[in-house]
Design goal:
CATH superfamily: Glutaredoxin
Protein name: SCO family protein
Structural class: alpha+beta
CATH class: Alpha Beta
Oligomer: single chain
Strand content: 15-25%
Pfam family, one: SCO1-SenC
Number of helices: 6
CATH topology: Glutaredoxin
Family: Belongs to the SCO1/2 family.
Shape: globular
InterPro entries: SCO1/SenC, Thioredoxin-like_sf
Helix content: 25-40%
């Protein structure tokens, strides 16, 4: 019975990996890749714009702790849920806006203009800053954080984006000290945030 259960579980794991575009398989692989870099420096200098159109650089991630998430506004579930969760965690922890930065970097800059990001973020949060810019520059920035993303065609010119789904928890030097996985227990997520405050 135990051997049969193991065989079934192994088969399911192989099937998930074979799907390639599946969220669960991608999340497992990407978490393993990024988690090896916790405590080390990720990222490279960049010059992009925030959701108000103002210039923003890597300096935004320094001088105070930050939460950093890579997503896109046309995302049906993961991204809106994560934006809601980030705002909820910070509200429940009673974190002042100037005590911790919160950033949403689009991995779909072709559609996510500053105006589009503003319309998406501002109704949900007054503290989460959207980041976008020229596609090549945005993608270079995401790659410097070792973030997985890939355009997946849906037909008739439409597409979605597969992407890494965890929130980076950064210290005051802009280094990754922890990750908050999608759907993580809220108390655990808040403890991870509190540890850098």
């Amino acid at each position: 019975m135990i051997a049969r259960t193991r065989t079934i579980l192994l088969g399911l794991a192989v099937a998930a990996l074979a799907l390639g575009g599946g969220f669960a398989a991608r999340q497992l692989m990407d978490s393993r890749t990024v988690s090896t870099a916790v405590g080390t420096e990720l990222g490279a200098p960049f010059e992009l714009v925030d959701h108000t159109g103002a210039p923003i650089t890597e300096a935004a991630f320094e001088g105070r702790p930050s939460l950093l998430f890579f997503g896109f506004t046309h995302c049906p579930e993961i991204c809106p849920t994560t934006v809601y969760d980030m705002e909820t965690w910070l509200t429940e922890l009673d974190v002042a806006p100037d005590a911790l930065g919160a950033f949403f970097v689009t991995i779909d800059p072709e559609r996510d203009t500053p105006e589009f990001l503003a319309d998406y973020l501002e109704p949900q949060s007054e503290r989460i800053i959207g980041i976008t810019g020229a596609p090549e520059d945005v993608w270079a920035m995401a790659k410097s954080w070792r973030v997985y993303f890939q355009k997946r065609p849906l037909g008739e010119g439409e597409y979605t984006m597969d992407h890494y789904a965890s929130v980076f928890v950064l210290n005051t030097e802009g280094q990754v000290v922890d990750l908050i996985g999608f759907g993580e227990n809220p108390e655990i997520a808040k403890a991870k945030i509190a540890s850098v405050l």
